[in-house]
Structure formats: structure tokens, C-alpha cells
């Protein structure tokens, strides 16, 4: 736009000199035309900005962190003249990892502010922007501003686009191996309890098959009869249990990106443990605290997906610390159930709470961001881990920066 204005100013200057030195009628007509045409162009631009329509949709509906999704934008021109220059303000924010437009050769990591196009008369131009998100959470994403330039590139008019897409970005689904942690069978698996008159091979009930269920437990005869997969639930599955305490109170970090990395890894670790329990026929119960104390039982894939949807938008900023969380579920009989705690903090109060309330040695997952730890912090963390191990607590670390 700057070059267009400079060029227009140069043309005005040349014609003004022509008028000054010649004074002919043709020179004056040329001057009037040059002055009038931009005004007409501006009037047409006012019509454009008033009538232009933006339609956008994000696909797919289920969005997972770090996966690429398509934001399809349609720019509609209902007029009988072409919109020569249209600029769309791209979605911005530190949570957006990358935006690219393969068709127009655009690939940027929040460096380019606008996507440009032209729209022929009585037609629609489509733009597909590929977006990936750094972190889980709830977002409003979309083109929120459109700019229209006049035919000569002298004027730019802006218009707000109010209809953005509300999306939930889910945490990644990872196994314990993908998190670089190994399930400790003596602590993840609960000790079986005997039911009065119960038979471990007895089928308690049958329900619909879900993707995380064990294929060996499919009730083939009933599945054939109902024409859909059904899975058997046994008594021995009900006899296992894991209490999963998730500490959502993070340490104070000056860099918000570190907080986001760590709280995402805390949620992903919790979901990995729930997934592991389902695959091994273990009923688990997850506890965490945001504004209120929350507990959810996870018996099957359907429970898992509901919990995953809730944890996708939970905020890891306040709430109880790990020791207070353990105290708040103290009425549970830990001698009959394995306990797993996920925390970003390592302190004596957590150790005391665990050793006091759990007769069996608990399993502790420590989530940290190794790339951002100083030498002093690394030494202090190693010291704390050794102390916890000395107290009989199995400690597993997972690095959020990996």
C-alpha cells in the first residue's frame, strides 16, 4: 500500500507540473480524473467491506494437541465487480504452534500476520489454513478480521468477523512407554481382594465393546446374535483398584510456556495410567481439585473418554497441593488399593502424607521440565528423589520438555 501511495503521489505531482507549465484543458481534465478516480475506488471499497461475507469451519471436530487441523475459510463476493485485494487476519496466540497454506505456498510459525486473496465477481474464494496447537485447552479460533483494499491499493478498510470457532484441544493419547516411564507391576496393579462367594472367572455383566477393551474378553456368541461386539466383565476385574491423585498446583515459573508444558504432561501421564489400568482390567478412580474436589471412576473406555474430555479443559494453576489432596481422600482404605500420585512438587509434606495415609508404599510420578532446570535445581531434584526412595516410595520421573 505504501508503494501504491508513493506512485499515486508521483502521478499527481507530474500532472500538477503539466497543468502549471501548459495550462491546457487536457491537463486540467487529466488532473480532475486522477483526483476523482481514487474517490470512486474508495466508494466501491465501502460497498465491498459492507457486503463481503466470511464463512469458516474447523475440521475435524475432535482436535488433539500437535495434530494438524484444517480451518476452511470461504470469502463470498455477492457483487458484480471483483474484490482485487482481500486480507484475512490469521489466528494468533502463543498456543498456536503453526499455520500453513499449502495451496498458496505459505508456511509460517506466527511470522506472517495476514493471508491474501482476490475474489472474482459473484463468486467464492476458498482458503484452507492448516493449524496445529501447542497445548490442550478450550479456544476460540478463526479469522476475526478482514481487510479490503481499493482497486489502486490506496485505502484499506477493516471489518470484524464475529463468528469464530469454539474448539476443545484434547491432550495427546500416549502409552506409558511413550512417556518414557515404565509401569511397576507391584504398584500399578492392585492386590486382588476376595469377594464373599465370588468366583474370579464369574461373568458379572456384559456391555458394549470399546476400543481400549481386551479382545480376549469379547463375548463372541452374544456379539454374533446382536450383530455388534460385546465384552465380558469378570469378578476379578472388579477386585482390583487404583487411586490416582493428580496434583494440579504447579510451582511458580516465570515462563508460562514451562507451566503449559508441565501441566499438559501431568494430564497426559494421568490419562496414560488410566489407559494402562483399563487394558489390564483394573478399576481406577482419579482425584483432583480445581475450584471443587473432583473424583471420577474409570472402569472402561467410555469412562476414559469422558474423563479425557474433562481433563482437556481443566486448569492447572490453583487447587490443593499434593499433600492436601492425599489428606482429603484419607478415608479410603489404601491397604486394599494401590495409590498413584502425580505431582510437579517434591517436598517433605508430600512424603509425610503418603507414608501416614498409605500402608502400602505408593507410586509417585514426578513431572518436570529438564531443559529448563539449572544445575542447582537438578541437584536439588536428585536429592529429593533419593530421599523419597529412601522412604520406600517408588519414584518415576517424566520430562515434559522431551
Q: Looking at the chains present, what oligomeric state does this protein adopt?
A: single chain
How much helix, percentage-wise, in residues?
Answer: 25-40%
**What's the CATH superfamily of the largest domain, by name?**
von Willebrand factor, type A domain
Biggest sheet descriptor: 6 strands, mixed
Low-confidence region ranges = 105-110, 182-200
The domain count comes to: 3
Question: What's the CATH topology label of the largest domain?
Answer: Rossmann fold
Short structural summary:
The chain has 402 residues and is α/β, with parallel strands linked by helices. The chain is built from 10 helices and 20 strands.
Describe what you observe in this structure.
The chain is α/β, with parallel strands linked by helices and 402 residues long. It folds into 3 domains: 2-50; 51-170, Immunoglobulins (Immunoglobulin-like), CATH 2.60.40.10; 185-192 and 240-399, Rossmann fold (3-Layer(aba) Sandwich), CATH 3.40.50.410. The chain is 33% helix and 30% strand. The chain has helices at 2-22, 25-51, 185-188, 220-226, 235-238, 256-279, 301-311, 322-328, 348-357, 375-390, and strands at residues 53-59, 63-64, 68-77, 83-89, 96-101, 106-108, 114-119, 123-133, 137-141, 145-149, 156-160, 165-170, 203-208, 230-234, 241-246, 283-289, 293-298, 338-343, 363-368, 394-399. The strands form 5 sheets. It has a 6-stranded mixed β-sheet, with helices on both faces. Strands 1-3-8-5-6 form a 5-stranded antiparallel β-sheet, with no helix packed on it. Strands 7-4-10-11 form a 4-stranded antiparallel β-sheet, with helices on one face. It is elongated. The relative contact order is 0.10. The model is unreliable at 105-110 and 182-200 (pLDDT under 50).
